[in-house]
Amino acid sequence: MKSARAYTKGKRAEQEAGTRQRIVEAALALHAEVGPTSTTISMIAERAGVQRHTVYAHLPDDRAVLMACSGLHAERMPLPSPDLWAGINDPETRLRTALTALYAWFTRNEAVTGHVLRDAERNPVLREVSELRFGVPLGAIHASLADGLTERQRAALTLALSFYTWRTLRDADLTPDAVVELMLRTVLSATTSPSRA
Fold first, then answer.
1. Which residues of the chain does CATH 1.10.10.60 include?
2. Which of 70, 85, 95, 191 has the fewest CB atoms within 10 Å, i.e. is most exposed?
3. Which CATH class is domain 4-75?
């Protein structure tokens, strides 16, 4: 039978975990709305319904906030796994499958990804966390598709996997399928250097 003290400690730990979850949820929502750099502790506290010191108690610095938010986002919305196309032998079908999955992820996560990549250009801590949470799995996607490609095709693949490439083409009023096909053809056709006059 549990003692009253053990029950109280368990209940307190449960409440603390719930408070931390609310704080992280609030911070992640603000990152999607205004970006990590524009998100303040006061904004997080207000959104989570807690005091500033409570936020600091759970997330004492910028790195802690960014790691917690990016961890929650990666858990909820993981980048597509190379396992999705690992068994596809045809290079064209494999690349089309990967690009379709990645661009669908970009579509679902456009707001937070755009803000994070923008802010990471001038925030070294965010850049480090972004590379860990986003760069590493994106690198795994690139590696899973690069085998057998020429140097120029690998460079074109890097372009095709870029969030900025996807957003630029989407903003050019191309359909999702048209974006996939354009980048697929760009990668596959990038086999030789153009001849010089």
1. 4-75
2. 191
3. mainly alpha
Q: What secondary structure, in 3-state letters, does 27-41 show? A: HHHHHHHCCCCCCCH
Judged by DSSP in three states, 78 sits in: coil
What is the pLDDT tens value at each position of the chain, 197 positions in all? 556 666 666 677 778 889 999 999 999 999 999 999 999 999 999 999 999 999 999 999 999 999 999 999 999 999 999 999 999 999 999 999 999 999 999 999 999 999 999 999 999 999 999 999 999 999 999 999 999 999 999 999 999 999 999 999 999 999 999 999 999 999 999 986 655 54
Whole-angstrom distance, CA of residue 184 vs CA of residue 159: 11
Token digits for 121? 């250009």
Q: Give the three-state DSSP class for 100.
A: helix
The phi and psi torsions of 80 (rounded to 5 degrees) equal -55, 140
141 phi and psi, to 5 degrees? -65, -45
Distance CA(119)–CA(169), nearest Å, equals 22
The tokens for 3 are 């003692």
94-130 burial code (b ≥16 CB/10 A, e <16): bbbbbbbbbbebbeebeebbbbbbebbeebeebbebb
Q: How far apart are CA 87 and CA 78, in angstroms?
A: 20
Report the run of H or E that residue 77 belongs to, with start and end. Answer: none
